[in-house]
Design brief:
The protein is an all-alpha fold. It has 17 helices and no strands. The longest helix has 24 residues. The N and C termini lie far apart (about 45 Å). The structure holds ligand D62 and magnesium ion. The site of the ligand COc1ccc(C2=NN(C3CCN(c4nc(N)nc5sccc45)CC3)C(=O)[C@@H]3CC=CC[C@H]23)cc1OC has 15 residues, from helix 14 and helix 15.
Length: about 375
């Protein structure tokens, strides 16, 4: 019954503190690491459950709250304890896409089913990620590369794991969706998660410019000029709405540099931990060491400046243009964060290097050791 389900989906002695944090669930500035700590390491469950309640999705799709919690807790437990691609990353990306969906331009754009699919895709998109890249799995003849013929190996695997978990009767929170709705949810989720493979980044950047220009042309000026959303995007084709959702999840997946510096640098520590563990394995296996993965020659600041300039800033500039002025904060954070890393580099020459900066995160490397094989 309802009274057995805690307010944020999981039992925690810090419910008051979690409530305070969840007041910011609609804000770009939510501290997902605090949510993880105060939810007893259930950030993905508590964020998803809170968003579902807030968006009234439990009523709209007659979802059993208990089955939703069962699914979320099981999904969360299938994220591995790796430095970056853990359940906190899934919670972070899910909360980010929730905020992007709140942008006034999209007030009348997506159906409830598309919103359900988008949040689901974000929550599942990296489940059971082993903390190494597709290329590493291919180069090391990993079972997963064999299974998926070297094609979007990690993304295919996460989708398969996530949908497998849904087959468990106790976790099937979408049982009351019609067959047609289930088919659409599955179709949109597959499309969005496969698009988080960075090998698809170029294709997304190719089409985004012309696609957004066509959308701006269609943008309807609301006749009632004093309404809050005087320029909402209305797209008649589901195909176009899914393309927008695909870009939105890709933006959310590449949103670390759009966050406040104190949050962003924690993600940098984590991704570099993960890349350096992979580089250690490549080195000891006599394999070529992948870009940014060699801890002995790592230039963390340069890698971030390259990541921002080559990938993150161009993508977010396209996105911000479409929803102007609603993503200015993201562009401002990207700019100040890039400048901070440039300042770190300019500061190197004058700073006497007494000790190397070790990453501030100490991670249990048991998941990484599994891969040593
Ligand atoms: C916080 O800091 C970070 C967070 C995430 C990543 C990721 N990086 N990549 C790729 C990006 C392109 N990459 C580049 N390769 C080469 N050769 N040159 C260059 S210049 C610039 C990049 C680059 C390879 C890794 C992934 O696929 C991850 C899985 C899905 C999304 C993004 C994730 C990266 C971060 O900081 C670097
Ligand atoms: Mg991924």
């Amino acid at each position: 019954s309802m009274d057995t389900i805690p307010r944020f989906g999981t039992e925690t002695p810090h419910e008051a503190k979690l409530a305070e944090l969840m007041d910011n669930i609609d804000a770009w500035g939510l501290n997902i690491f605090d949510v993880h700590n105060y939810s007893q390491s259930h950030s993905l469950t508590s964020v998803m459950y809170t968003i579902f309640k807030k968006r009234n999705l439990i009523e709209t799709f007659r979802i059993s709250p208990q089955k939703l919690i069962n699914y979320l807790v099981t999904l969360e437990s299938h994220y591995l304890d790796v430095p970056y691609h853990c359940s906190i990353h899934a919670a972070d990306v899910t909360q980010a896409i929730h905020v992007l969906l709140l942008i006034p331009s999209f007030e009348n754009t997506f159906t409830d089913l598309e919103i359900l699919a988008a949040l689901f895709a974000a929550a599942i998109h990296d489940v059971d990620h082993p903390g190494v890249t597709n290329q590493y799995l291919i180069n090391s003849d990993n079972e997963l590369a064999l299974m998926y013929n070297d094609t979007s190996v990690l993304e295919n695997h996460s989708l398969a794991v996530a949908f497998k978990l849904l087959q468990n009767e106790d976790c099937d929170f979408i049982e009351n969706l019609s067959d047609e709705q289930r088919k659409i949810l599955r179709q949109i989720s597959i499309d969005m998660v496969l698009a988080t493979d960075m090998s698809k980044h170029g294709a997304i950047m190719q089409t985004i410019q012309s696609f957004h220009q066509s959308l701006k042309a269609k943008q309807c000026k609301d006749s009632n000029s004093n309404s809050s959303t005087n320029d909402s995007l209305v797209l008649t084709e589901q195909k176009e709405r899914v393309q927008l959702l695909r870009e939105m999840l890709h933006c959310a997946d590449l949103s670390n540099p759009t966050k406040h510096l104190s949050i962003y640098t924690q993600w940098v520590d984590r991704i570099m931990d993960e890349f350096h563990y992979q580089g250690d394995r490549e080195r000891s296996a006599g394999m070529p060491i992948s870009p940014m993965c060699n801890r002995r020659t790592a230039d963390i600041e340069m890698a971030q400046i390259g990541f921002i300039q080559a990938i993150v800033e161009p993508l977010w500039q396209m996105w911000a243009q479409l929803v102007y002025p609603h993503c200015q904060q993201m562009l401002d954070n990207i700019d100040s964060n890039r400048q901070w890393y440039e300042y770190q580099i300019s500061n190197r020459s004058s700073r006497n290097n007494t000790s190397d900066k070790t990453t501030s995160q100490s991670h249990d490397s048991k998941e990484q050791d599994k891969l040593k094989g």
